[in-house]
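Explain this fold:

***
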Amino acid sequence: MPIVVEKLRIKAQADYRARISIDKLDAAHRDVLIRAINNVLATENAIFTYAQIIDGLPIADVAWDQRIQCLFGDHPLDGGHEELCLGALDKAREVCPQWDPALLTFDPRVVNAFQRAAPGTRMFNTRLIEMVAVALHQFGVLLHQMDFRMHQGDIEYMINWTMPKPAYARDDWEPMKPLPSIFNHSFYRDFVIYPEGVADMVGYWAEDRILGGVVLFDRDAELDANGDIVREPPNVYLHPSRAKVTFRVTQLLDWQQQALIDFLLAEPEPAAAPADKNAPQVPCPLPILVDDRNRTRVDPHEALVIRGIYRDIWERKPLDRNEWQKMIRRPQGTVDYPEIGLEGLVFNKNAGVPLPEGKLKRYLEGRESVPEGPTKRLFDEYKEYIGREKRVKLDEDEEGDVTGEAKAEVKEGEKKEDGKDEMRQRDDDHQTDEQEGGGKGEEEVVKGKEENIEEKEESAEGNAKEAKTTS
């Protein structure tokens, strides 16, 4: 491993010497870059971050806000540095707007790619983000090297403090050796390799606190065979260090990256106060704190050596065998692996338990698909389920409208039928009356005929008797 570290250190020094200023950029590209840097430096978060470097120590809450701690036990920072010392914040407000663009240097490949890219293109936006991140890093380096140290106390005591041996500790217990600075990112502590040494470690810390993580790029996708940045870049990655945010290298979503670009390109407020003359007109998305919606993630030990995701090849030395095994065997939680929380839903789904809409609503926001994995089938099924529910509701609404119209038509039809029935009843009654009247007349006629016949028979019998008597 010492050989690897030495080779990386030599590579870092060579890359650092090859850096160039922004003088090569034309006026349009240069103005965009300077405006973007000013937009970030005008934020309270950036001023507060650099004020801590000017102070000489981070405040206690910020120092403890790490996933992998470098502070232990009853560190004197607790209770000894709860807020910035007098004058540090004012000094930061004075220094940040007065930065000199000539002090900044960048990787020539990045500068050339930015210069070639037309404004508004994906290459232009990605390289702009990279150059802003490098500039913020360099500001942290410069402020640390200027050594303001406005802290009213013994800074070296705070930095070099070690945890006393606990009463329950084994005989071979040794305290963890303190780092040369409390300003550090959990995964960017290889100050032996860095061109600016400890100052670069401070720069990574500042970048993380301002942007939400160290900004990385998929170099395998961007670089051609000659190592030039010419290919269409994917979305950028952040490598966070905050205590309640994942420690994995995480890709930004489209809307997150677009919000950052909109902020960097925003024009200053015309009517802003003199102290905030660089304040942009759009909302500030910084720091970007990735959450469970950011599902494209890579383990830190695989990002650089396997996936080719980095900014500088020397920024982190590879893990040795023992360190690699520890990373593989470590416990996994939903903060770093949010898909674990969905495995229970997969099990329930297979068991016939209905999918709870609220559980996945946040996950589905702004996403049309997910990477291949154990939850992709659940995701696809859930999307289909939600679509089906919407279709059913729509059909029910349409059916409700149709049913209402149909009921009105039926009711109207019933009224018409009732009217027809009444008319039919009246006709039937009238016909019945006529039939009854006709029947009575016929009976009377028949009866009259019968009476006439009887009279004729009686008359005939009387005539016959008279004739017999005469004889």
